[in-house]
Amino acid sequence: MISAGHVDLTVLGAFEVDQQGNIASWMIPGKLITGMGGSMDLVAGAKHIIVTMTHADKHGHSKLLEQCNLP
Known about the structure:
The chain is globular and about 40 Å long. Strand 2 (16-18) and strand 3 form a beta hairpin. It is built from 1 helix and 5 strands; from the N terminus they run E-E-E-H-E-E. By secondary structure, the protein is mainly beta.
């Protein structure tokens, strides 16, 4: 469904968002990596994307950045 372009809207979480609309959503350095999962398919296959997240990390730093620091 998603790769065929049949999905109009997807909602997913992210760790960071930059001012060009790029999202960091699959890896935190130093943590166990199990793979990207379906997030890459969701953002590539949907016509509209809604990203849900908190605006600041647990240290109070903004997650809305000029350029993403995470992959």
